């Protein structure tokens, strides 16, 4: 069995070796890290845009759901639509039509 080895004095690192290592890390970050950061930023912007679109679609869904509910359960709303959109009138009503005026 070998006995304990004596401690060897610590050799100082060569400054050029440290500088080369730092340059290697900087070069790696410049090549790979920059595009990664840009990709993450682009994805974050896309997420924000998709969230805005989602909020708009949810608001439209709520509005359409309310309209569907009125169409199913509100006879007054159906009558209003029939009068406005289809030009329906009740029996005995008189309809007055005026010529459209041109905007000035």
Report a brief summary of the structure.
With 104 residues, this protein is mainly alpha-helical. The chain has helices at 15-73, 75-86.
3D structure, described in words:
By secondary structure, the protein is mainly alpha-helical. It has a domain of 67 residues. It contains two helices and no strands. It is rod-shaped and about 120 Å long. The model has no long low-confidence stretch (mean pLDDT 85).
Strand content: under 5%
What does the radius of gyration come to?
38 Å
Terminal-residue CA separation: 110 Å
Largest sheet: none
Low-confidence stretches: none
Tags for this model:
0% strand, mainly alpha
Secondary-structure map:
Elements: H1 15-73, H2 75-86
């Amino acid at each position: 069995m070998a006995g304990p080895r004596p401690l060897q004095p610590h050799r100082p690192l060569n400054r050029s070796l440290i500088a080369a290592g730092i340059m290697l890390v900087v070069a790696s970050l410049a090549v790979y890290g920059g595009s990664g950061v840009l990709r993450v930023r682009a994805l974050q912007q896309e997420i924000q845009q998709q969230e805005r679109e989602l909020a708009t679609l949810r608001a439209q869904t709520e509005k359409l759901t309310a309209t569907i509910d009125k169409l199913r359960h509100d006879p007054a709303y159906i009558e209003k639509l029939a009068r406005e959109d289809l030009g329906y009138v009740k029996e005995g009503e008189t309809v007055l039509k005026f010529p459209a005026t041109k905007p000035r």
